[in-house]
Input
Amino acid sequence: MSRPTLSGWIGLAPVNVRGERLDRSPSLLDGWLTALGARLRPGGAECRRLRRFAEAVTTAAAGLAELDDAALTERCASLRARLLRSGLHREALLIETFALVSEYATRSLGKRPYPVQLMAGRALLDGRMVEMATGEGKTLTAALPAITAALAGVPVHVVTVNGYLAERDAALIGPLYVAFGLSVGTVLPGQCPALHDAAYACDIVYCVNQELVFDYLRQHLDAGVRPFAGRGLPFAIVDEADSVLIDESRTPLVIARELPGETAADWLPAHEMAGQLDAEVHYRIEARERRVRLTGAGRRRLAETEHRGAWRLARVREERVEQALTARHLFVRDRDYVLRDGEVQIVDEFTGRVLPDRTWERGLHQLIELKEGCATSARRETLARLTYPRFFARYLRLAGMSGTLAEVAPELAMNYATALVRIPTHRPQQRCWLGARLYAQSGARWQAIVERACQLAAAGRAVLIGTRSVEASEQLAGLLAGRGIGAVVLNARQDADEAAIIAGAGAPGRITVATNMAGRGTDITLTAAVRAAGGLAVILSEFHESARIDRQLYGRAGRQGDPGSAEAHASLDDELFVRHGRPWLRELARRWPGGVLPRWLGTALLADAQRRAEAHNARIRIATGEQDRHWSQSLAFSGGEE
Output
């Protein structure tokens, strides 16, 4: 790949010697103006341009259908030579390439891209954020720009939110890549670093977002190694872009090493003292901020204890006790973590999956281990850290797609300098929204869900019930079992059986109870009998802090014109309302007669709580970005890269 071709494709943005865009540090005013522009930018002209492109591709593809395989192979070789020579900025070449991909997809996969997929693929190639409704075929859509860029010599990273999707999509589109003579690699959790390094040498790499950033940091720490086989960061297509680029940007990714010499005895005094303190007297729980603060009485109580070693320092003992109280009161087993093989393993709140190699910082992980009676691991020292905004902004061209991007378009524009394009659906959507019911107590909510699921299953529907935690999914499955109804559970404990569970989730009378593992990217195939009975019925059992995540679950139903329905049953006891709801509004709602709130009041409470949660999380993302910049500057002074 020649540098002039790549530079011409990305424009005049400054690039470092590693083939990465230099870090952007826009001022607050620049960021505000960019975000405002994203809100005001009309999309009609862009959609008309993309529609004309799709029409031209469809016309060109019609002429290829008559060619035999040998002639098509010859056309492919000629096209690749011209793309390598001319790059990716000649419209006629792009139309020809998309047409060729369409024909090959028809022959190798039995699927011809729809016009809306051609539109979305062209927008991705331009470096846009593309909003496509769930079920519109994002897997094949991503292949269009990936193949086009790879044929022109541009390495492509297709980034997904979990290993299941990365492996599934790479296998599903594999025959199409083989037809073009392109190499494809996969970067999955649990693989050894050597396999990752080999994958990055391929033309197209399907990778999990967390593994991708960790590999980047790991290779930076290896002196003399250029990250990603020296190919830099040319082009990324991020699936479920709002989850990766917005939701998960609150937490930096850290590489650390174990500190020798620490034992459980270093944390035991804090753990024991936390059990001796009284709430409101010695400490206060700040649920919204997810932290615990010692009061003056609590600090005095600690000062009266025996002082040895680091415990003599007031700052050390207070910080450790606050962490111990946080571990005791704010981190819950089977919600925030699971116990597996005697170890505390973190559960990703966005994907519902276990993160086996991740630990919490500043002693929190060790204190949770003490709480659970597990062997205490060594504390770790940070060697390198990086947030998603800083990493993905380094790609020479960044594109993304999701069914829920419109709300975060300003933040995407501000952090990544990308514009949003909204793509229409291929077929009219038939999913029916049956509304939301909000209950004063959680027990009434669970009983209502059990009754509703039994009713829908008896009618021949397939039912998907979404929960927010491992604990809730297993509790609900137990309630259904008490009614003699067998439900299949999909959570962090059953991650090895995910593919099989999803494959059977569209059968008549099937009830699947799942955490967020069954949210983004999950495609449940319905039987003909289920379609005739009304399609998949989705029931949400607890609202998330972001309405986007709720809509992702609803989007499992009514895909590609299939029938389906979605509804929600939630409770004022849920975490969203406890952490972000206004106390006086929750108290007013709790006093409402009958235990079920009227729709207008429930809607108002939900909208207010989610708005406050989104604002709170946006502030955390801004603070994390500032901390990341300070970290980078401090390492720059010490001669480090990250």
User: Anything to note?
Assistant: The two ends are 27 Å apart (CA to CA). The longest helix spans residues 599-637. The longest strand covers residues 430-439.
